[in-house]
Amino acid sequence: MATGQAAKSARTVVISGVPDGLLNNDVMADILVIHFQMAKNNGGDVEEVTYPTMKKGVAYITFEDPEVVENVLKKDEHRLEDKRLSRYYPLKVTRYCENVFGSVTSVLNMSIFKDQFVLEDLIQELKKNITALSFGHLQSNGHIFVQGPFPAIKLLKDFLLLKAKSLSEKDKSQENKPHQRPKRRLQQQRLSMETSNFTPDPAGEKQVVVLDTDVYHYMKYFFLKKFLVNYDVVISDITDGEITTVYLENARSRSGARQVLRVKEEIENQSIKLHNSLRKERIYLEGHTGDEKQKYKQACETVKSHYPCVLVIPYDTHIDIIGNSSEIFEFTKEVSRKIQSQNIQLERSCSRGCCK
User: Fold this and answer.
1) pTM, rounded to two decimals
2) Closest Cα to residue 54, out of 288, 315, 345, 273?
3) 146-168 burial string, b = 16+ CB within 10 Å, else e?
């Protein structure tokens, strides 16, 4: 059954830009089926359409043949046209499995390098060496936004830490020279403070791992507690948006440096596996009342009992669903059906009440 579900997710595309509120939901679903079965749209036989979904203007189309997915994605433009619509609507079609932890955003503070490098030149060097990353505009305070695959973000951070460490060591070797200026010493001290939290302890008693925040949440919930039972290691973490820095330290002084290193290696290996296998779906709650938000959260908790390997993280503005692609695909559909069922029951109840 798991293989069949995985195949289903591979045969599914995400459609955004569906005109919302113009027609009955069943009619709109029928129009979508017609569009994606037409040869001129590179379509084929549709197994299932999921509309409406948790996201406004978004639908899921599952085809019978996975090759149709590739053909549909190759079409330059999809225009939803039908006599029941007053005009055409452009649609965006994406592969369902593209909703992965493939891109994160980080803010880098490059100001610590401004006395040693021309920052613009340093950024050009980074762009040349790590082509998978997209760099924003360098701000006057030395901050710059960087976006790209998490492994590339980690590579960038390691690269900058090595530069910072080399500059720090260079300053130390020159600090006793009579021509050393106070500004240079202050710069060295600031560099040390900036990098001390990220540099592994030489004795191996302290280690640091940088992870995608969602991957870390999943790992922390399902793996870390069980894994740490056999090790005397203390873990703390600092989350900064999509990146979480994890600090590992032996609970007893100098008695378990190997344990700390072993836990670090295990976390790194596990994070790579999860990064390649996990997917995330998001249920947006903005615009909903407090009661409606609670209804969604309760529905997620109810459905979760059937999906023990899915992690549900509720926030005030949204709910994140994390798991493998087939499970979260079915999970969000069940939540959607449950919410629709509750709304229908509420409407019937109100209707009976009005008739009395």
Assistant:
1) 0.56
2) 288
3) bbbbbebbbbbbeebbebbeebb
